[in-house]
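Quick note —
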Amino acid sequence: MSVRDRRTPVTLLTDLTFRLRARAHPEPPPCACPTATLADRPDATVVRHADTVAKAHAPGTPPETLTPRLRAAARLPDVFLPPLTPAPAPLGDRLVTYWPYGTPVDPGAPEDAPWEAVGALLARLHRSTPPPGLPPMRGPAKAARAVARLDTVTHPATTPVRRAWHHLPAWARAEAPMPAAGLCHGDLHLGQLVRTPAGDWRLIDVDDLGTGVQTWDLARPAAWYACGLLPPEEWHRFLSAYREADGPALDGYDDPWPALDVAARALTVQTAARAIVKSAAGERPLDEVESALVDACARMSAT
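Predicted structure written out below.
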C-alpha cells in the first residue's frame, strides 16, 4: 500500500475539496466560492462547493455495487437528485460521487417536515421497475451491523434489545434472502430529502438502494410513531400521501400494521442498538428518546 493510500481523514478532506473545486470550476482562474463540509463520518465525507457536492463513500465500498445504484438513481430523476457522473471515481481507498446541491429539511423545524412529499416520492420509487443488476437493498444488513456493535459495550439495556432482535425472522436479520424484490431506498428518513432550486423535493443517498421488502422504507416513521416519538398527525400525513400516490407496499391492507410489523420492529432494534453504543461511548445515561426505544424493544420481546 502506498503512502497516499494510507490517507488520514484530514488528507481525505483536503483531497476531496481539491477534486470538488476542480469539478465545479474546471476553467481558471480560481473562484472565491465558499466550501463547506456537510458531513464527516467514518462511513461518508460530504463536501459542498458552490452548487456541487462531492461524497466520499465508506472505505471498501465495491464499485460493482455502487455503480448500478448510481445508474438506477439517474434513471429516476423525478425521485432522486440525479448524480452528475455515471460512475464513481477512486480517491485513495474511497470512491467519490458528484451531485448537485439540494437544500435539506430543516432539523430545527420538525413541524414543517414535508411528509406528503416523502410519501409521494416513496410511492413513485416503489412503483418503478428495478433495473437489471441492481443489488439487494442494505437495510437488514445495516441493522445486523448495528446489533453486532453491542458486543463492544457493557450495558444493561443490551438484553431487551438483543432479545427483540432474535425474535425477528431471519430475513430481517440479514440471515436469509428477503422474501420480496421491489425497488427500495433502504434507509429512508427526513435527512434523505432535499429541495432542488426549482422547489421540488428529491431523495438522496443511494448507498442502500436496491431490491427487497418495500415496507422497510416505511418502517422508520412507523417505528417512531409506535414508540410515541412521531406525532400521530405526521404519521398519518405520510401514510396517506403514500397510499394516495398508489404506493404498492401496503396493497391489500386496510390496516397497515400487519404489513409493517416486522420491518418496524427491526428498525426499532437497530435504532436502539445505535443509541446504546453512543451512550456508552459518551459515558452518559440513555436520554428520554433512547430510553423509549429500549422500552419498545422490551415490550416486543415480552410479546
